[in-house]
Amino acid sequence: MALGFDISLAFLVVVLAAWTIQVHDTYSAVLAFVVFGLLVALIWVRLASVDVALTEAAIGSGVTGALLLSAAALLRPTESTVAPPGAAWCTAAGVVCAIITAGLGAIALLLPDPAPTLAPLAAANLPQSGLGNPVTGVLFVYRALDTLLEKVVLVLALVGVWSLAVDRLWGGIPALWPATCPDSTLTFLAQLLPSVGLMLGIYLCWTGADHPGGAFQGGALLTAMWLLVMLAGVRAAPATGLLSLRLLLVAGPTLFLVIGLSGFAIAGAFLAYPPGYGKPLIVVAEGALTLSIGVTLGLLAAGPAERAREP
Amino acid sequence: MTSTDIFALCATTLVGLGLFGIITNPQPLRKIVAFNVIGNGVFLLFGVVAHRGAAAGLGADPVPQALVITGIVVAFSATALAVALLLRLAKQTHLLTLEADDGSDGDLS
Question: Could you read off the pLDDT of A201-242 as tens digits, one per residue?
């Protein structure tokens, strides 16, 4: 029964991926990609990785989908200007990709048994940190440096996106095209949903210490609510030059870095937590990171400044 | 054949399909989407490895899971940067190819 479900799920995901690659219209391809991402999230649940499933559904499918959909809509007029490659080229590419797939598949099926695992080590040392969710444990205790650097990557990517603005518009307002009809269902939803979404985002961040959830998943929910509000035209997109906005962007990584540096003084190592204070420090860092991640993801999706800032 | 094996084959097929899309589809936005399909395949392979490493009462090894969460976020920021570059290119040249530029148009104001 479960095997039948898994086979159908895997089959559907492969069909959707093939559709995403092969369909002529880019907009349809992106729509298929969003559905594909949601089904991949289901596979993650079947692989007992609920934290990853939440992240995939929220960021891999949701926020990426919003970004790609708006790009597909903007690029639609340019689509017909590109010539497709010839049949011989496609056949050659197909053969190469089939060989790579077969090779990878063979490797994946012949992985060593029993599989190497760090799960016992991760589980054995988890009680010292006060956390209950081993994935949060890896993200914020064992491999906290990776998580810190990843926040820096997010901010750097945003700097990259912003610097694509025309010089005179630096610090201006991103071009999110808000819906033009006021009092529509979208406006109503944009006023109703954020209260629920914000609560859920905060809950996901809070519960991440002990259950599936955490700063990424909570932050992505905040992003979704913010994008909804901006796209419905209830609130305008902020000017990228606002000092308060920039402080919000770096608040999470900075606080995490400060906690990490203070580890030298109070626990003897970078990103170490003093005994008994691990969980409170992690929850504080996660709270600030959730906010920063939410704002960063939203601004990444909104793109570079395209309008001058009102004086 | 177990569920984990099925998902392993699914993941490798995604890598192959995505690679095919990157090579054969001439539109840059479609290449970005294909890049994300490859990414999903690679992440799922991590998931398969994590699930095979289930031990100590955990359903899956948490270390690959944490790596994938980080990976998904980084893949999104790379996608956002690529899309922004693409939109700027389209705005500058009014057409969208990755062919060599003949240097005739483009207004870099």
Answer: 888 888 877 787 788 888 888 998 888 888 887 777 888 888
Domain edge (last residue) among A76, A102, A127: A76
CB pairs A-B closer than 8 Å: 284
What are the φ/ψ torsions at residue A25 (nearest 5 degrees)? -80, 125
Which domain, by its residues, includes A66? 1-76
Fold topology of B3-93: Helix Hairpins (1.10.287)
Same domain, A53 and A3: yes
Residue B107 in this model has a pLDDT that exceeds 50: no
For residue B16, the SS3 value is helix
Give start and end residues of each alpha helix (H) in chain B.
3-24, 28-52, 62-93
Residues A134 and A48 in one domain: no
- The complex's ipTM? 0.88
Contact B76, B57 (CB under 8 A): no
- Residues from chain A contacting residue B5 (CB–CB below 8 Å): 108-109
Domain extents in chain B: 3-93
Domain count, chain A: 2
Task: Count Cα atoms within 13 angstroms, Cβ side, for B62.
Answer: 26
pTM of the full predicted structure?
0.88
What residues of chain A lie within 8 A of the CB of B84, using their CB? 160-161, 164, 303-304
A41 and A148 co-located in one domain:
no
Q: Judge: B13–A14 Cβ closer than 8 Å, yes or no.
A: yes
pLDDT in tens, B4-25: 889 999 999 999 999 999 998 8
- Do A164 and A248 sit in the same domain of this protein? yes
**CB within 8 Å: A59 and B25:** no
Of the residues A1, A5, A47, A131, the best mutation for testing chain B's interface (the one with the most B CB atoms within 10 Å of its CB) is A47
Which residue in B16, B27, B66 is closest to A143 by CB distance? B66
Residue A111 resides in a domain: no
Helix (H, G, I), strand (E, B) or coil at B96: coil
